[in-house]
Amino acid sequence: MSHEISDALVFFGATGDLAYKQIFPALQGLVRDEGLGVPIIGVAKAGWTLDQLKARAKDSLSSHGGLEIKAFAKLTSLLRYVDGDYNDPSTYVRLRQELKEARRPLHYLAIPPSLFATVAEGLAKQAAGMEARLVIEKPFGHNRESALQLDRILNRFFPEKNLFRIDHYLGKEPVQNILYTRFANLMFEPVWNRIHVDSIHITMAESFGVQDRGKFYDETGAIRDVFQNHMLQVLANLTMDPPTGEESDAVRDQKAALLKAVRPLDAAHVIRGQYAGYQSVPGVKPGSTVETFVAAKLFIDSWRWAGVPIYIRAGKALPVTAVEVMVYFKRPPRETFEEIVSRGSGYMRMRISPDVNIALGLRVKHPGESMQGEDVELVLTEQETVFKPPYQRLLSDAIRGIGDLFGRQDIVDAQWRIVEQVLNDTAPPVVYEHGSWGPEEANRLIEADGPWHNPKPPALRS
Fold first, then answer.
1. Which of 132, 297, 275 is nearest to 199 (CA)?
2. What is the pTM of this model?
3. What letter would DSSP give residue 223?
4. How far is residue 367 from each of residues 364, 372, 374, measured CA to CA in Å?
5. Contact 317, 275 (CB under 8 A)
6. How far apart are CA 1 and CA 293, in angstroms?
7. Which residue, 156, 128, 129, 152, is CA-closest to 141?
8. Residues of the chain with confidence (pLDDT) below 50
């Protein structure tokens, strides 16, 4: 399917933290790698000049990814700036003047979600006859109802095909690699189901705490911050059916179908934890019951996955920073060699970060006279983590109108539906020590299908 390319790029929140850490490096990459040559207009209320925005861009690139003289010179030649209040109609009039003849601008909202509707309406009033696109950052709502309300508001001004809900996790090369490995190799498909798979474990571990994000995190928590979006997207890539065609929405159609089949979380199968010391972080409310760790047991009510337990955990202040998937296969119906074989002797391991690899766990004969075996791991691929940055990939797709890697209304709704029943749990989370693997209760949750697979630091890998 052909898509018309956006003829201007506008980013709101141009003086903010996200622009500083992610957007300027992505823009330099687009100029360098893909010849981006359309006007780039920053909008913010900071009392700045264009020269100050250029200086901010230079500082950003020096700190995040490296300043490249030639690409930066081209970027600054494209850069424009509109300073104004998002609630002031004249801001959008001045933006329209800067857009000049552009008819298909891409507007990127790197601003608080509370301002999405205000900016969308302001843009719509100045965009008569234009085919504008809108990119919004997560979170898409705070719960299912607020997400639906946000959609209703945005759809008043922009059709669904022109809305791009950005979740940077979908732009990560290793997350896409899960899909590619599954569907580019026929050998995996016959065993990728309830007949052969015993259980699935997904772990997202971070060795650091909430750092300087105390106020934000205390209004969010682990379920909203990473489980409802990142972890469920990894699950969808891992368990969805093959896309049925090459249309731009074929992948998202299958993701939506999978997520709609995931059983809503049951509070009895969810463990919430909070690391010791969290409540002393600036911005965190005294007596906060917000979770910094979550472990959950899920099921997918489909023919392919019926009855297969899926365990997902995500947390801060754990021993390592890593994201890893383990798909454990069932043992043969009869142990031919009369050994007591561990559950972990047959698996597929997919490491998503910080390094990337795919490996198979197998049982092989131990050298010697007896028919005894040992567990070995066959590493299929190990890759350097030199990938196109997620924001560069996602902005490139949005400019081209390609929505595969963005959230769609029904997908976002399905994700909120899964977690909705456990969002308002105000019971105190279980306290766990910094550097541990979370509360002991998480081990009891997985007892029948455990233990958890604990990812190793990259340096310890052979």
1. 297
2. 0.90
3. I
4. 9, 8, 10
5. yes
6. 42
7. 152
8. 1, 460-462
- State both tokens at 411: 């997908």
Comparing CA positions, the residue from 228, 33, 212, 251 lying closest to residue 144 is: 228
Amino acid identity of residue 327, one-letter, is V
Contact criterion met (CB below 8 Å) for 375 and 362? yes
How many H-runs (helices) and E-runs (strands) does the chain carry?
15, 15
* Residue 334, Cβ density class (10 Å: 0-12 exposed, 13-18 middle, ≥19 buried): exposed
Site of tokens 């300087």: 212
**Catalytic residues, which ones?**
230
Beta strand pairing status for 356-365 and 163-166?
Answer: unpaired
Amino acid (1-letter code) at residue 235: L
Look up residue 249 and give its DSSP letter: T
Query: Tens digit of pLDDT for each residue in 322-355?
Result: 999 999 999 888 877 777 666 667 999 999 988 8
- Beta-bridge partner residues of 273: 293, 430
pLDDT of 384 reads: 62
- What crossing angle do the helices spanning 250-261 and 232-239 adopt, rounded to 10°? 110
The CA distance from 367 to 373, in Å, is 8
Whole-number Å distance between alpha carbons of 208 and 315: 9
- Residue 403 dihedral angles phi and psi, to the nearest 5°: -100, 0
The pairing of beta strand 197-205 with beta strand 322-329? antiparallel
DSSP state of 304: T
Identify the structural domains of the chain with CATH numbers, from first to last. Answer: 8-137 (3.40.50.720), 170-387+408-460 (3.30.360.10)
Farthest CA pair distance, the chain: 85
Express each pLDDT in 199-235 by its tens digit: 999 999 999 999 888 998 998 999 999 999 999 999 9
Helix, strand or coil, per DSSP, at residue 30: helix
Rounded CA gap, 170 and 181, in Å?
16
